[in-house]
Structures are given as C-alpha cells and as structure tokens.
Amino acid sequence: MSDYLNSVASFAELRSAQNGTWDNISPEFAARMKHQNRFQNGLDIARYTAGIMRQDMADYDADSSQYTQSLGCWHGFIGQQKLLAIKKHHGTTSKRYLYLSGWMIAALRSEFGPLPDQSMHEKTTVPGLIEELYTFLRQADARELGHLFHDLDAARSAGDAVREKAVLNAIDNYETHVVPIIADIDAGFGNEEATYLLAKKMIEAGACAIQVENQVSDAKQCGHQDGKVTVPHEDFLAKINAIRYAFLELGVDDGVIVARTDSLGAGLTQKIPVSRDPGDLAYKYNAFLETEAVESAEDVREGDVVIKQDGKLVRPVRLANGLYRFKPGTGEARCVLDSITSLQNGADLLWIETEKPHVGQIGGMVDEIRKVIPNAKLVYNNSPSFNWTLNFRQQVFDAWVEKGKDVSAYERDKLMSVEYDGTELGVEADKWIQSFQADSSRQAGIFHHLITLPTYHTAALSTDNLARGYFGAEGMLAYVEGVQRKEIRQGIACVRHQDMAGSNMGDDHKEYFAGEAALKAGGKDNTMNQFG
C-alpha cells in the first residue's frame, strides 16, 4: 500500500477510537494536510538538508562534474519562484540550493533602509529571512500536492484506476522544493558568544550551512570593497567553534560550516596575536606583518609597539587609526594559511573572496591547500561585482598574446564595447564564461557555485523594462506583451496569482472544515479561470 493510503488508514483507525466524537473529521483530508506539511519546524529542515549537502559533497569528491549551484534570494517569493522554475525546466532540484546573502539583507531588508554590506543591519533579519524562504518553499509543496489531490479525486470520479495509481505514485514520490540554504552570518555580529546565539537562531530557522568570514566584526566590509581588516586565526577559530557547538546543541550533527577568508583583498589587521612558541599560529600570522627594524631605543617613538621576530626586534607598521599593515603581495599566502587552518579546526568548506573570476588564480591557491588537505573544497562567489564580459575578454586577449596570435584588431582596455560582441574574441570569451563553472570545479576544487545578488539585479532590470514602456507610448501593452503573454506561453505558475498565493488551498481547507457550507473563492466568477 502507498504511504499516502497508509496515512489515510492510520487516521481512520485513530478516528474510530474516539467513540464517534471525531466523525466529522475525514481521514483522507487529515492525511492530505499531513502530506502538505512534511517539515514540522526549521530543525527538521536543517537536519534534512544537511544530509543532502553531505551527500553532495561526497558525490563531488568522487566526481568533480557533480558540483552544486545556487542563486541569492532576498525574499521568500523569489526563492520559491526559483525552485519552481528549477523543477519545471530541469525536472529535479538535485544539486541546486539557495543562497542567503548578507549584502542583499543589508540593501533590501533592513529597517534602517538600504545599507552597505557592513554588518549594520539587524542581526535578527538573517534568521527571519531563512524562515521566510522556507515558509514559501513549503507552501510551494503544499500547493503542488493540493493539485495532485484534485487529480486523484478526478481519477476516482472517472473510475480511472490506472490514472488513480499513477497519481498515488506521484504523491508518494513527490520531490520537495525544500533545498539547502547556505546562509551568510557575516563576521558573526560580535564576539564568539554573539556568533553562537545568532547561529542558533539561524539553525532553528532551517539553516544547515553557515558561512562565516575572518574580518573584524565591527569593521566588516563587503568582500569587493576596500578597507577590509582580518582577525588572527585564534579569534576566527573561536567563531567556528561557536557555530559547531550551536549545530551540536540543536541536534544537527552534520551541519556545514563554510569558512571565508578575505585575506586576498585585506591588507590590514586589528591586533597582533600573542605567540608562545616559534611556528605557532600567531607566529605565522605575525610573519606577514610589515615591520621596520629596531636597532636601539632611539628607533622607537612614544607609544610604538615592538615585537621580537626571529630573534630581532621589529616595529610593526601601524596606521593612524591603530591598525597594522601586512606586507604587500602576501594575500595569496595568507589565504592559503587561513584555509588550511580553518579546515584543520572544524570548517567543512572554504570561501576565498577574489578580485576576479580567474580559474588559474583560484586553482593555484587550491593546489597549495590540497598539499595539506587533499579533499579541500570551495564555495565560490560568481559575483556581480565582477565585470564578467570585460574580465573574460581580457583573459582571452592575454592568452592569445601569449600564443603569438594577432590581436591588433582589439584594444584591451576597451573590450567591453558592443563592437566586439560578434567578434572571434567576443565569442570565445562567452564560451569561457559559459564553461567557467565546470572548468573551475574540475581545475580549482569548487564544489559550490553561487551568485550572491542576482535577483537584486533581475528585479531592477525587469522593473526598468516595464516602467519604460508602461509610462511611455506602449501603455498597457508593455505589461501584456512584456510580462503576461510571456508568463502564459512560458507556463509560469504565478500567472494564476490567486492560486500561487494560496487561494485554492484555502478553499480546500474551508471544505474540510465546513463541508457544503464552505464559502469558497474559486467559483465560476473567479477571473483566474481565464487562464485555464
């Protein structure tokens, strides 16, 4: 017997034990509501999705073509529509996640209004968005299962046993829209206790993977901005420990921690860690400091900090704001050390924030990391902060120069120009962009590719297109031709927006609760019937 029919039978048995007081309760309706609410809370989701991520990581270790992808979403509806589209176009949600971007929370969800990505937004907004995303994904499940239940009723009414069996099979094997979310906790919003408390809220909301970065919490900057300041390894590892304890306390034993290093673009540190033994972590961190030799007390100014380094007294270069400067050109070496240290101390995945999408640069760092951690894997930001067109056209240009190919028809600094779109170089660059994710997963250890804020840009672009026409000469045709007609012909589910918002589910519930007395919204006068 199918799982669904077993559930119906179980509720029928439970009803019969109530001595007639539950006779108004339909076992079938109860079974339907239970199937439409598979996940009882966020911890159910976190445990389920953590298992998915762990299996995906194992699949990638066995075959680098099995990388995973996600798109950043700033609202539950956007996340829901992404997953509906994935299932519609690709048939399965396997290897597809959602990303929760701290940048988009700051820009779009803060009560202060739009903010830069500097951890100034309310920390409670982060778990709030996780809960919202999963609320919408669960509603997508309930809606689609509701349609299947109507199909089941229709098959039974028609006496079509073959169709009934097929629908029951679809119900029993239904694939949920609930997928892993990699959630950005920024630099932890305070000390390690603050990080632990926020991590708990995020996990309770459903997060199975938390990304934390090694910047100073109260001076956090977007990874693609200047002025980044890192913390010593000991400080960062305390926050990794805090997140792991939060996972373990809540019973998500296989929760995933993504350790992000901003060292490639961060030339400053806030403090000098205490080294107790030559070669310890603090010693390695301090070795990257830019210093000046101290020969005598005359070389030391009032208030200067002096440390002993390899048997010599040196003065770390300190800026007017009290921050210390790293030696120029040490970013990649610091990224490698950060990454190895994080993986050796509880992190599961790495995130290296780079200034350009270059397979060779990323792969070079990963090769060094894998000399120590052979199965090291990256989460990589396919960032909208990169000018992808210009970057890859210049990469192709440089590769052609190295091969001795004639590039006299191109100006390297002007390759963004539309005049190069149909050229041999432009076409080749587009091929490199198209294959970037597969290439870098194969050559640079990237397990997960994400775009942090794509829906920020798609919302702006689509709104611009509609506003241009609707408030201009096109009038209503701008909406009809540019939006609704495309929705209908592309089979976009939310063209029936009342159904997407839950109107039909509400009608079902009214019928469950009130029977023939239910006042339903989906009758013949509902204008949604125009969409079939």
Could you explain how this protein is built, in words?
- The strands form three sheets. This protein has an eight-stranded parallel sheet. Strands 5-7-11 form a three-stranded mixed sheet, with no helix packed on it.
- The protein has helices spanning 3-16, 27-35, 42-62, 76-90, 102-108, 125-157, 161-172, 192-205, 233-249, 281-286, 331-344, 359-370, 388-403, 424-443, 454-470, 476-490, 497-500, 503-514, and strands at 68-72, 96-100, 181-184, 209-213, 229-230, 256-261, 268-269, 291-293, 307-309, 312-316, 324-325, 349-352, 378-381, 446-451.
- Helix 6 packs parallel to helix 8 (192-205) and helix 11 (331-344) crosses helix 12.
- It has three domains: 1-36, no CATH class; 39-143 and 177-273 and 329-461, TIM Barrel, CATH 3.20.20.60; 472-516, no CATH class.
- 48% of the residues lie in helices and 11% in strands.
- The longest helix is centred in the N-terminal third of the chain and has 33 residues, at 125-157.
- It is built from 18 helices and 14 strands.
- It is an alpha/beta fold.
- The mean pLDDT is 92.
- This is Isocitrate lyase.
- GO terms for molecular function: isocitrate lyase activity; metal ion binding.
